[in-house]
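p-hydroxyphenylacetate 3-hydroxylase, reductase component structure dump, as promised
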Amino acid sequence: MSLDQREFRNALGRFATGVCVITANPEGEAPIGMTVNSFGAVSLDPPLVLWSIQKDSECFPLFEKATQYGVNILSEDQQALSNQYAKKGQHDLVEGTFRQGSSGVAVLKDVMTSFECDIESRIDGGDHVILLGRVLEMTTHPAERNPLVFYAGKYRELK
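structure tokens r here:
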């Protein structure tokens, strides 16, 4: 069976996802952030999560060097933050918008939830690499907010 890549991508876009900024501070580099919607839960015991990065991403070499990453789940009022870290060449974290988590990884302030993770393994996934992470720390924002949702190539609201 042969799949048309554009048609396949559009079909995958019919699955609604949340939006996250993945952060890292690889040794010798400035802390970085990258917007993704490829985040997923894997296991409660041990606590494992994953996300994937395209091998030709400009951030790929930095995440290859990283031993940890942060997952920062965005709320619907943080669309500008999502857009900021989705832009090519704009991945350095802005001073004052992040903190060093207790595990040492950079995490964004005022997000719905952040997970601090050690990278357990990197798994080849075709044109992507899947980064499996063990959650070391978790911070949740106490206020009730709606998540930033992405569906069919656009931001959406929960109703």
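DSSP finds three helices and twelve strands in the chain.
lmk if u need the other ones
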